[in-house]
Specification:
Keywords: Membrane, Transmembrane, Transmembrane helix. It is built from four helices and four strands; from the N terminus they run ββββαααα. It has 158 residues and is mostly helical. It has two domains: 83 residues, no CATH class; 66 residues. Strand 3 and strand 4 form a beta hairpin. Helix 1 packs antiparallel against helix 2 and helix 3 packs antiparallel against helix 4.
């Protein structure tokens, strides 16, 4: 068994645990409760905003129903102590995947600097105008593509 974040021995489980005071409880029930509360709050906001003016309460309920699952998942991710999960690596930062990620991210950053520098230089001398939104979208696409290709190369090598 692996120790929890506070150093006490805690049995690992499929869905993990969360520390409440001095004891450990399953992470799913509080995640469901808090996720439902958050979805209800968003539903109230949806009602107040009158997204569908003819039926504001219905729009609030629709917002709450549409957001409850993602919010429960988000709350679980924020609450669970990863050291209590079955199969979780004890030191994920030392994994081979983390190494691939680090190499791909640092290479992609260099690519972004190079492409944006060359692009700015070219646009400074070119007689064309580019909207800021389009330029930023191009930078994001370069970043995605560069990281994806570099990660795939690192994965194939490793």
């Amino acid at each position: 068994m692996d120790g929890g974040s506070a150093g006490s021995a805690v049995a690992r489980s499929k869905w993990g645990k969360v520390r409440v005071g001095s004891r450990w409880i399953a992470a799913v029930p509080p995640a469901i409760a808090l996720g439902m509360v958050a979805a209800g709050a968003l539903g109230v906001v949806g009602t107040a905003l009158e997204l569908v003016p003819e039926h504001p309460v219905v729009s609030g309920i629709a917002v709450a129903l549409a957001t409850v699952s993602p919010l429960v998942g988000l709350v679980w991710v924020l609450l669970v102590d990863r050291s209590t999960l079955e199969g979780a690596a004890d030191r994920p930062e030392d994994s081979v995947e983390a190494s691939w990620y680090e190499k791909a991210a640092s290479g992609a950053f260099t690519d972004i600097l190079l492409v944006t520098g060359l692009g700015c230089t070219a646009l400074a001398f070119a007689p064309i105008e580019v909207a800021g939104l389009h330029a930023l979208m191009a930078v994001i696409l370069v970043a995605f593509a560069s990281f994806g290709v570099r990660y795939a190369v690192q994965r194939r090598k490793g």
